[in-house]
Amino acid sequence: MTKKRLKVISIILIIVAFLLVFAGYRQQTAALVPTRLHSTPTLFLHGWGSSINAEKQMTSAAQRAGVTNSVTQALVDRQGRVHLKGHIPPHARNPIIEVGFKDNRNPNYHQDGRWLKQVILKLQQQYQIKNINLVGHSMGNMAISYYLLDNADNQRLPKLRKQVAIAGHFAGIIGAGDRPHRLHLAATGRPNHMDNNYRTLMGLRQRYPNKQVKVLNIFGDKNDGTNSDGDVTNASAQSLRYLVQARALSYQERKIVGSDGQHSRLHESRRVDRILINFLWK
Fold first, then answer.
1. 3-class DSSP state of 139
2. Are strands 82-85 and 96-101 parallel, antiparallel or unpaired?
3. pTM of the entire structure?
């Protein structure tokens, strides 16, 4: 092989290497460029000791119903760092984000709210979102409630448009501040007993977004005489009304009675799936 031929081959290899590096750089840079979404994203939050697996039934049902064509994930590590998994196309229809907390047994609800805020800020940075919907199961509702409580005056955050509470233990959990038939609600929805968390959440009566959010409260009743889903009494779940109804754009409740009304089965119920889909996207 002549020196001239070796020189030509070397030049070709250098050009090919340059093109590969440039292509990789362009791909990496494109991933960092913010994408403006044209549809309101919906975030799903799991409960105590759980994970995004608890959200799969509901998000998969939305996909099967054809109301969304994008399901991605936002995973929060123990240090509060957010890792987005998957990419949302700019023209995605009703994109869903499954939110997962690595520290899924954290009882500091202010901290849970801060983690949710970090997720929302990350999505805002990446996708320039202006509005959001939030769906919480069990403790996920406390993360949502404390996020709203602690950020009510922050006008730079996306506007909450729809909120769904599933099995929310706003006024206590059976065995941890509540028991069957202990809690009673006045005609106004005010509970006769308030634990420390509920007294803190009372701030929502003045700070909840005014005439902006449509609220759906789903709770379960096993129909076993306890008036509960096994973990949360109906009164504890329904005490959300006293906190938000006066300022919500609308407020409605749906009770799931029978085996599907058990606490964990509520996020695995086709009845709940249909209610969610109709409320969020129909």
1. coil
2. unpaired
3. 0.89
What is the rounded distance in angstroms from the CA atom of residue 135 to the CA atom of residue 132?
10
Tokens of 275: 């209610």
Give the separation between CA 172 and CA 152, rounded to whole angstroms: 23
pLDDT digits (tens, 9 = 90+) for 190-248: 999 999 999 999 999 999 999 999 999 999 999 999 999 999 999 999 999 999 999 99
The size of the chain, in residues, is 282
Q: In 10 A of CB 97, how many CB atoms?
A: 28
- Could you give phi then psi for residue 133, rounded to 5 degrees? -115, 150
Domain ranges within the chain, ordered by starting residue = 40-281
What is the torsion angle, in degrees rounded to the nearest 10, for the CA atoms of residue 103, residue 107, residue 113 and residue 119? 10
Task: Dig out the tokens for 72 from the structure.
Answer: 């991605």
The residues pairing with 76 across neighbouring beta strands, listed in sequence order, are 82, 101
Classify 40-281 by CATH class.
alpha beta
Q: Let me know if 269 is exposed, middle or buried by CB neighbors in 10 A (0-12, 13-18, 19+).
A: buried
> Residue 123 in contact with residue 37, Cβ under 8 Å?
no
Q: What whole-number distance in Å separates Cα of residue 35 and Cα of residue 30?
A: 10
